[in-house]
Write a structure and sequence with these properties.
- The chain has 141 residues and is mainly α.
- 67% of the residues lie in helices and 0% in strands.
């Protein structure tokens, strides 16, 4: 009698194949090139010069963003958890709807809000709000 493989094991196998498959292929090609005597790929593994500086900047920026998001998330969660009555009691359940909104939709929403503020500012002769990403915008030149 034939036994069937459970679906969750097949799904787990597919997950590991999709996530770790490309990484294993890269290590396999690296091993082949090292056995053939070509060590030029090793320069790409350990960044030096400008690449090292960019790596440090990227890691520090991601650490800062993650820390800030954790702090804001904890304060927001405590605030919403304490308000159990009235309208704010329902607001904490509406926050779950934001999980389903992709990040690029949030970006377009904030861009439209900034553009809505920029038109009255420019009409009044005030400088516009600069809303652009990157390290240059944050003063990390």
């Amino acid at each position: 009698m034939k036994t069937r493989v459970p679906v969750h094991r097949l799904a787990l196998f597919m997950f590991f194949l999709l996530v770790f498959g490309p990484l294993m292929a890269l290590f396999f090609e690296l091993g082949q090139s090292l056995l053939a005597g070509q060590s030029s790929e090793l320069r790409l593994i350990i960044p030096t010069g400008r690449g090292f500086g960019l790596l440090i900047r990227s890691l520090s920026l991601s650490l800062g963003v993650a820390t800030g998001a954790m702090i804001l998330g904890i304060f927001g969660a405590v605030f919403l958890w304490r308000w159990r009555t009235g309208v704010m009691g329902y607001l904490r359940w509406l926050v779950l709807l934001l999980i389903a909104v992709p990040p690029y939709v949030h970006v377009f929403a904030w861009l439209s809000v900034v553009n809505a503020f920029n038109s009255p500012l420019s009409a009044a002769g005030l400088p516009e709000i600069q809303f652009q990403g990157g390290l240059e915008a944050g003063g990390f030149n």
